[in-house]
Specification:
Elements: E1 2-3, H1 6-14, E2 19-21, E3 28-32, H2 36-46, E4 55-57, H3 61-66, H4 73-82, E5 87-92, H5 99-102, E6 107-111, H6 116-123, E7 129-130, H7 145-152, E8 158-160, E9 172-175, E10 182-185, H8 191-198, E11 228-231, H9 234-240, E12 246-250, E13 263-265, H10 272-287, E14 293-296, H11 305-316
Parallel strand pairs: 1-8, 2-8, 4-6, 5-9, 11-14, 12-13, 12-14
Antiparallel strand pairs: 2-3, 3-7, 4-7, 5-6, 9-10
Bound molecules: threonylcarbamoyladenylate and magnesium ion.
Threonylcarbamoyladenylate binds next to strand 5 and strand 6.
């Protein structure tokens, strides 16, 4: 059921049930992180491998420390600027965090989402919410309540409606497990913004060892559309897909070779934030069209363009 009743959401969560929650990045599939039975329901509903750990969410840094977590200096510097916000920190776990949440690893991912309803909800809870994106494992993340309803409607007790997500891409993940912080996933906060606060970080991960063994979702096909997706030179790929029904995802350009109804321009004004915000809902919309292939441009490798390219490339892996 979709609704805006905060008390209903709170009650379900206290009873160990699943509630989909809005955040500024994407909708999350939330459960009480301290209740292992509730957390298990997340893995089951998403059909997510149990070796892929979950992010825990709360509304204040002090709550994380009260749960025994030790926050490094650079994390605190980032948090002052960007939390609440689209940034997730990976740090050593404490005994209070169940192994079910961290998939048996010694590290936990923590985040304070920047959404008024999520913050209000979290402020009323004395436990963190474990919440992956509210999509079946491997598919595109949901950026509104209806997206959640379509795919997981039967499996959640309640979908708390907080409107369209205004970032539209998952959070950036930064790890503090080594001396030099490293980016594990590009996302809603740019590398440039992070480095402007704590200086150079390691961002040279590649698909082979991103979040190494603990995050198989980062290793292969992910964020994937049902239709085949090809990233790269769209002009050239149009020629090569001549006999097929094509849909296009472009930054700001129009292609005369393809009907307008099948062209999805993410930002006429060449704004990467706007493009990021629209990407997943466009991928979902195209999946409902009768097309054979989606041709996507490669976006500029700056700001949120890095995260857009990352999602498109993962979606294109067969
Ligand atoms: O924006 C977001 O981060 C959304 C919203 C709901 O907060 N959540 C999200 O969760 O994207 P999920 O589970 O779809 O993606 C989280 C990623 C996964 O690739 C997971 O492997 C990685 O974070 N992760 C979680 N805990 C980790 C840990 N302890 N160490 C390394 N990676 C971790
Ligand atoms: Mg996800």
């Amino acid at each position: 059921m979709i609704g805006t009743d905060l008390n209903k959401a709170i009650n379900f969560l206290k009873q160990g049930e699943l509630v989909a929650i809005p955040t500024e990045t994407v909708y999350g599939l939330a459960a009480n992180a301290f209740d292992e039975k509730a957390v298990l329901k997340i893995y089951q509903a998403k059909n997510r491998p149990q070796f892929n750990p979950l992010i825990i969410h709360s509304n204040a840094i002090e709550k994380f420390t009260s749960w025994g977590l030790i926050l490094p200096e650079k994390l605190l510097q980032l948090a002052t600027r960007f939390s609440p916000g689209p940034l997730t920190y990976v740090i050593p776990k404490s005994n209070q965090i169940p192994d079910m949440v961290t998939a048996g690893t010694d590290a936990v991912a923590i985040r304070i989402p920047n959404h008024p309803i999520a913050l209000k909800l979290l402020s009323e809870l004395d436990f963190p919410l474990a919440a992956p994106s509210a999509n079946p494992s491997g598919y595109v993340s949901p950026t509104n309540a209806l997206h959640v309803q379509e795919q997981l409607g039967e499996k959640v007790s309640y979908i708390l409606d907080g409107g369209e997500c205004n970032v539209g891409l998952e959070s950036t993940i930064i790890s503090f497990l080594d001396n030099v912080p490293s980016i594990l996933r590009f996302g809603g906060l740019s590398l440039e913004a992070i480095e402007s606060v704590i200086g150079k970080v390691n961002s040279s991960f590649n698909n082979q060892h991103a979040i190494s063994p603990v995050a198989p979702g980062m290793l292969s096909r992910h964020y994937a559309t049902k239709h085949k997706l090809i990233v790269g030179d769209v002009e050239k790929n149009i020629l090569q897909s001549a006999s097929q029904k094509i849909a296009i995802i472009s930054f700001h350009k129009k292609y005369n070779e393809v009907v307008e109804a099948h062209q999805f321009i993410l930002s006429k004004n060449k704004n990467l934030e706007e493009a990021a915000q629209k990407l997943f809902s466009v991928m979902r919309a195209i999946d409902k069209l009768d097309v054979d292939v989606i041709l996507a441009e490669e976006f500029p490798e700056i700001g949120l363009g890095r995260a857009i390219n990352d999602r498109l490339k993962r979606a294109s892996i067969k």
